[in-house]
Amino acid sequence: MRQGDEWSIVFYIDDNRTSPVEEFLASLDAKTQQRFRWSIEQLRLRNVTAREPLVRHLEERLWELREESSTNIYRLIYFFYTGRRIVFLHGFQKKTQRTSRRDLDAALGRLTRFSQRQGGETR
User: In sequence order, what DSSP letters do the residues of the chain get, joined into one string?
Assistant: First the structure.
């Protein structure tokens, strides 16, 4: 791979200068955090070619990074952005079959704010 071809990971930052996804990850136990570090790195390496069971398309530009630990299911919602960036928008513990509209709307709102601040295009 040539220099400059690598993808980077970005965590969405709120207007109050906090990262909801990093806060979510910090709230998890050490084993689950380690599993997510591995999964995030796999996504960075595979980027747009990543498939299930690692990732799944949700809707529009939103994708989810999937992780299970013990009996819990966790998800990080992300999208691809110009400049080979993977932007993580929202993290949550999944308790039902379908991703809740509330979680999707939170991610979509952050995607819109991120895009407005950056002025680039999503992929």
Answer: --TT---EEEE---TTS--HHHHHHHTS-HHHHHHHHHHHHHHHHHGGG--TTTEEEEETTEEEEEEEETTEEEEEEEEEETTTEEEEEEEEEE-SSSPPHHHHHHHHHHHHHHHHHH---B-
> Which residue shows structure tokens 């979680």?
103
Q: What is the CATH number of domain 8-118?
A: 3.30.2310.20
Torsion angle (degrees, nearest 10) of CA 83, 14, 96, 71 = 90
Give 107 or 3, the one with higher predicted confidence.
Answer: 107
pLDDT digits (tens, 9 = 90+) for 46-85: 999 999 999 999 999 999 999 998 889 999 999 999 999 9
Handedness of CA 53, 101, 7, 5 (dihedral sign): positive
